[in-house]
UniProtKB/TrEMBL annotation:
One GO BP annotation of this record: extracellular matrix organization
Endpoints of the signal sequence: 1-22
Location of the Carbohydrate binding domain: 53-139
Example of a GO MF term: carbohydrate binding
Upper taxonomic lineage: Eukaryota, Amoebozoa, Evosea, Eumycetozoa, Dictyostelia
Source organism of the structure: Dictyostelium discoideum
Domain of life: Eukaryota
GO cellular component labels: extracellular matrix
Keywords from the named record: Signal
Protein name: Carbohydrate binding domain-containing protein
Key word Signal present: yes
PANTHER family attached to this UniProt entry: CARBOHYDRATE BINDING DOMAIN-CONTAINING PROTEIN (PTHR33239:SF6), CELLULOSE-BINDING DOMAIN-CONTAINING PROTEIN-RELATED (PTHR33239)
Amino acid sequence: MKLTAFGLFLIFSLLFINYTFSLELCGPRSCKNGSFCVSLQTTAVCRPEAQAYTIIQVNITNEGAWPDSAQFKGTITNICGVRIKKIVLGVQKFAMLKSSAIWNARYSKEFEEITVPDFADGILPIEDPYTFGFILKNSNLPPIIIKSIRF
């Protein structure tokens, strides 16, 4: 895969400039509230959550509601110019209708996380958004946070 100069600059800027958080390797459950883990091979660092939105755009919409459930559609657009291998989203009080009521993503009830993409190729830059979905027991979408992005 060919990396653009801007993409490399963005990644190294996020990883190495202005270390205001941890310099240790991190994962989706190791950064403090308000920050996420960004990693590239063996280097990882916690960064302020606002910086995640310079890498990806996340949008979740209600696609339909019924008396006992609601269907949601999520889209993630890679805007950083480099292929993203994995994104972990934190979802607390996530009441799925049933364990199979999620597609193009994986849900961990134990860690209260959604992991995307659900295939090996990752999310390519500036292409069609990656789409996933789920059905919850009610129409109230709980807060969703970005916990980690891995390149």
